[in-house]
């Protein structure tokens, strides 16, 4: 986050809402959202925090040290914290939510309906049309309990050990690019994205899956503009990839750690990575003898 740039944007524009991620799913950087909240509130704006990438990794409070630093809205997906898919939460200001109409209509959101008029319930009920996803809600609640039992301090320390081990192992590889600060890892959650200058990331990711059942995410991670900037790909270059399939489109390889991962698994990942790199480079040489 470039806080000076954000301040400049707030000064030059009439802004109603500032939306920011609590942690990047590309580099893992953690945003000082309470600092952003104070800046937004000073300009009469409210703040919406995307917490999907933070909820399983760090303790999070919507309350700041002062009222000006409080978060107005916090949203997250439950499956990011090991709950079943399909659930999530919007935590926000009831008075503000009551000013708007929901996107979906259905049973449970109305008080009275007549032929010519209707009245709606207050939030949160007005935003929960139809049959609720009860299993998802129960699963999300249990997931939160489990994470609290494990302890977010323990989770953070565990992730730091895994990230450090992986980054140090990657640094030993030839032609590697590690995105984000690879020396100071204190402000990152358990995400590491990387590339190799001489090997196609799509083929490398697939090869690791084939030979070692290693699950990585490869691509632009629903964060295309950020990924393209980090990779130095201009907008004109991006247009050149419109007709390409996945293997011909640039992207990164991402490793994401959970509370269940171990340092032994990092060692195994690095071993499989070396084998996959060797195979990919052999295939490139066979295809292009001048490589």
Notes on the protein architecture:
With 291 residues, this protein is α+β, with helices and mostly antiparallel strands. The chain folds into 2 domains: 3-87 and 133-150, Type I PLP-dependent aspartate aminotransferase-like (Major domain) (Aspartate Aminotransferase, domain 2); 152-287, Aspartate Aminotransferase, domain 1 (Alpha-Beta Complex). 38% of the residues lie in helices and 15% in strands. The protein has 9 helices and 10 strands. The strands form 3 sheets. The chain has a 4-stranded mixed beta sheet. The protein has a 4-stranded antiparallel beta sheet with strand order 7-8-10-9, covered by helices on one side. It has a two-stranded antiparallel ribbon with strand order 5-6. α2 links the parallel β1 (17-21) and β2 (46-50). α6 packs across α9. The longest helix is centred in the C-terminal third of the chain and has 25 residues, at 263-287. The radius of gyration is 23 Å and the shape is globular. The mean pLDDT is 94.
